[in-house]
Amino acid sequence: MKKILDLLKTEFIKNVNLKKIIIVLIVLVLSSLIIFKISKFNYGGNYTEGTKITQSDVENARENYNRSKKLFEELNNYESYIQMIKDEKFLKIRELMVENGFTDASSNRFKIYNLFLKIIPDLSEYEAIINGYKETTDDINDIMEKYNKLKEEYDTALDALVPGDIYKIEKYNLLDYKEQLNIVNAQIETTQTTDYNLENQKKYLEEQIELSQYLIDNKINADDWQYTIVENITNLLIKYLIPMATEEEFNENRVSMYSYYENYEDYINQSKILLEKNTKPISNYKIILKENIKPIIMSNELSSTQMPYDIRIGFNNIYYMGIVILVICIISFGGMIANEHKTGSIRLLISNPFSRSKVLLSKYIYLILNALILYVISLLIFIIIMFVTGNIDSLSIPQMIVQNDVVTKTNYLLFIIKNIGIHFIFISFILTILFFLSSVSLNVALTGCTTLLITLLSVFIPLINADKINAIFSYIPFTFLNYSKYLSSNPTYNLFITQESNMYINTNINTCLISTIILIIIIYIIANIIYCKRDIKN
Amino acid sequence: MGEIIRVENLKKKIGRKVILNNLSFSIDEGQIVGLVGPNGAGKSTFIKSMLGLYKITSGDIKICGLSVKNQHDKAVRNIGCIIENPDMYMDLTGKKNLEIYSLIKDVKDKSYIDELVRKLKLENRIKDKIKNYSLGMRQRLGIVQALINKPKILILDEPTNGLDPLGIKELRNLILELKSEGMTILISSHILSEIEKVCDKFIMINDGSILCEVTKEQLKEQNISLEDKFISMLENYGGQIR
Questions:
Q1: Is residue B84 in a domain?
Q2: Hey, which residues does B82 pair with through a beta bridge?
Q3: Does A13 sit within 8 Å of B104, measured CB to CB?
Q4: Do B85 and A344 make contact, defined as CB atoms within 8 angstroms?
Q5: Contact (CB<8Å) A353/B54
Q6: How many domains, in total, are found in chain B?
Q7: How many CB atoms lie within 10 A of CB B98?
Q8: How far apart, in whole angstroms, are the C-alpha atoms of residue A345 and residue B138?
Q9: Do A374 and A347 belong to one domain?
Q10: Percentage with pLDDT > 90 across chain B
């Protein structure tokens, strides 16, 4: 053991100097920043930077509004009036965005726009009303009167709006849902037979009322993770509860939309099954809200791009940093054994009381240790970036896994550590191949090029989205490809594991881990046997 | 004086080619032995086999009774060596190189290293990078490296390479000084006149086999120089110089 430590020390004395450390640190920091920047575009939502809306954008919108207003005053007809309202809406949105520093890609823009449409009903409603009207001044006055009344409501709502504070607006939605529920209840009372559509609408509205109340009671903002869960529950409700076609609609659109169902009854039954199947995820998400437990692994009902958990995205980026680390290692250590043979300095070790196995083992440990140091530095850089950019997430909130509809509590830190461990074993595997080639071929170019090729293949081949390739990778023991597939199985890496990637976790990843470790050992032993039998010719 | 190196039927094949063919001889403690032979005779192969750089095909070399084949780590602990050109890390300073050597050879006595550096007149350049050293300076640092752990046996393969006449004289004096301290030295060299001045015994090899073993006294008795003896041995062998 002492000998190995001595050899390790000599490796550090030989290879580490201030210049190298500074260069590697610069490379790591720059790569981290580039990856972070790219990720921000990829992940969308809060991390998508768009063009910032400036005062000149507002002026342009105002110009358009003034133009359409002037046109309406001249023509005084329906079309010019609608155009004027549209431009006014757009101007208001622009003003709000400038006021709050939003960008055109900001998710807040859509939230504000949706809110705007909610409070001032979509113009299509007016279009519908208008159909019964003639284009007379009286008609226009009538519409204007209705519009102005709604505008007052909108202005009141706008006063309450603080960017991100969705719960302050939610009371308008709540009132709306309650009103709709009263109407649906009245309809149900008057209907003698069970109308699934009405029943579903009732369920949907009851759920929405509960959710709205939750947002208001807990003062949930748009950027809070709980809001994402609420949004997802809403999506599920919309998907499975409304709209259900009536028998009439069903028959009308039978060929184009409902050919899958035998008849209306079958359609209703299938929908009921879907609803029951879907009740579990909905109730799981409700547990998440009730317990205030952050979910880690989502079912595929949740879009990972909606997840605002930045620290995880930071860890996700480590996956791509792994490639940078591998490239650094290939450049730095591709010739670690070959160069010593070329210069003859290897004789210094072998002709001294060090067996070749010990020399080889110390070099291998040195290689893995260096990769580990680079990995830890990369992690630290990401944590610092996350911290500086204010994107660091709290680790103190308990975490839960929603997997195959089963909710289990988990330790988030352990979860992260496990994934990082898996990733590092994958890196070690590639480095073992580098080590093998370096010690067996003693050729820097061959070692470097081959390992680089393997790294790139392991990264890019699994990204090919083809079922057949996936199936092959699941069974062929190219474990590193399986790893890559596992690690890159969705856009935000494995920390948001979807049901799709669960397949890899459940069926392959444990086998992969074991087989990879066995492969690492076998490759190392072969390298050791070949190297120990070799004559040091130089 | 007891036997310190024993070579027993040493055979080394590289591919199908026999480089060393049943080499057997022994060296006593405190002797300075010259290994003499033409290019390709197998001198370097023998030294590399002795140090464990070449795997022995058959036979064995015993150093202080320890088998190089089976107890490499323990056996080579007794050896200090320079093979052809000294092994150094060119991008590091002389001092850093010595730091590595002392770590490899587990040397804790730093004052002895300083003494060696002074003795070999390297103290003014010890903080310079090796790549800026002359060949002679590298050779001298190589000797420091070889002696750093006070080995029982010193192996010098072409030690005068790159040394100027003054350097050669200094090296000669150093070798004689080390002999007086009881060190066993094995020198392999082409410069027979130089080797003749310091060695007690000569082992002549050609084509991987021993041509003859002769002591300095025997040469004196025969009133023949080493060079003449070597040439006559080669002629007797059939003049086949590989």
A1: no
A2: B156
A3: no
A4: yes
A5: no
A6: 2
A7: 23
A8: 13
A9: yes
A10: 0
Nearest CA in chain B to A342: B87
Mean pLDDT of chain A: 72
CATH number of the structural domain spanning residue B71: 3.40.50.300
Same domain, A325 and A449: yes
Tell me if chain B has a CB within 8 Å of the CB of A101: no
Closest-CA distance, A34 to chain B, in angstroms, reads: 33
**A352·B105 Cβ contact <8 A:** yes
Determine the average pLDDT of the residues in A356-360.
Answer: 87
> Is residue B147 domain-shared with residue B170, that is, in the same domain?
no
Q: Identify the closest residue of chain B to A12 by CA–CA distance.
A: B100
Shared domain for B55 and B118, answered yes or no, is: no
Phi and psi at residue A8, to the nearest 5°: -60, -45
Task: Please report residues of B whose CB lies closer than 8 A to that of A347.
Answer: 51, 53, 83, 87
| Listed residues B151, B168, B187: the one ending a domain | B151
pLDDT of A308 > 80? The answer is: no
Which band of pLDDT confidence, cut at 50, 70 and 90, is reported for residue A208?
Answer: very high
pLDDT digits (tens, 9 = 90+) for A80-127: 777 787 788 778 777 766 776 655 544 444 555 555 555 454 554 455
DSSP state of B132: G
Say whether both B113 and B215 belong to one domain: no
Count CB neighbours of A82 within 10 A. Answer: 17
Beta pairing partners, B155: B81, B186
Chain B hits for A9, Cβ within 8 Å: 103
Of B55, B72, B88, the CB nearest to A355: B72
| Shared-domain flag, residues A194 and A85 | no
Q: Which residues of A433-470 are buried (b: 16+ CB within 10 A; e: fewer)?
A: bbbbbbbbebbbeebbebbbebbeebbeebeeeeeeeb
Residue A183 domain boundaries: 166-220+224-307
B13 touches chain A (CB under 8 A): no
Could you tell me if B157 and B223 lie in one domain?
yes
- Tell which of A290, A307, A324 closes a domain: A307
- B72 touching chain A per CB within 8 A: yes
User: Which has more confidence, A163 or B95?
Assistant: B95
**Token pair belonging to A404:** 């195959």
Domain span at residue B117 reads 89-151
Note the pLDDT tens digit of each residue in A426-452.
889 889 999 999 999 888 899 999 999
Q: Which of A10, A353, A355 sits opposite B100 (nearest CB)?
A: A10
Using left for φ > 0, alpha for ψ between -120 and 50, and beta otherwise, residue A327 falls in alpha
- The verdict on A335 and A370 lying in the same domain is yes
